[in-house]
Amino acid sequence: FMEFRTISDSKRAFLPLLLLGDEQEDMVNRYLDRGTLWALYDGGLRAVCVVTEEGAGDFEIKNLAVAPESQRQGYGRAMVEHVVRQCRGRGKRLLVGTGDSPLTLPFYEACGFRECGRIEGFFAENYDHPIYEAGRRLTDMVLLDMEL
Asked: How many CB atoms lie within 10 A of CB 112?
């Protein structure tokens, strides 16, 4: 059965999986300590997610990563649904910023997020190497949100 755990100590032990969701460690370090880290277990670690409280009723998914062998099995969606349950009643909006990728945008849209903006050049300006997903270089961050 799926079990969600809130991780308070030794968050960096989850770095190998977190780096799948955000591949530059200094970027992960910017939000890991101030965010809530959830881990999803189902006969082993399947997914992790870091959510921060950004003020004005906004929560933001900073990192969502599913273990490669567990992808496309519903664990990412289960984690988003868990985050929504945890934040609902405590905030107004759940945000996520991601690359303009044919892999991630449809996933978040299927979870109920809608595009609400872009940060042009975010990946090119904030990462020390080019970021590619599905053969496409990511340059802009696409901002998505959902009401809680």
From this structure: 15
Please tell me whether residue 132 adopts helix, strand or coil conformation. strand
| Residue 34 CB neighbours (<10 A) | 10
Q: How far apart are CA 101 and CA 92, in angstroms?
A: 26
% the chain with pLDDT above 90:
99
Contact criterion met (CB below 8 Å) for 75 and 42:
yes
Nearest CA to 146 out of 51, 72, 20 is that of 51
- 50 neighbors 30 (Cβ within 8 angstroms): no
Tell me the residue type at 140: D
pLDDT, residue 8, reads 97
CA distance 50 to 59: 10
Cβ distance 64 to 49 under 8 Å?
A: yes
> Scanning the structure block, which residue is given the tokens 């909006």?
93
In the DSSP assignment, the letter for residue 91 is B
Q: Is the dihedral of CA 44, 31, 8, 85 positive or negative?
A: negative
CA distance 65 to 39: 10
pLDDT of residue 98: 96
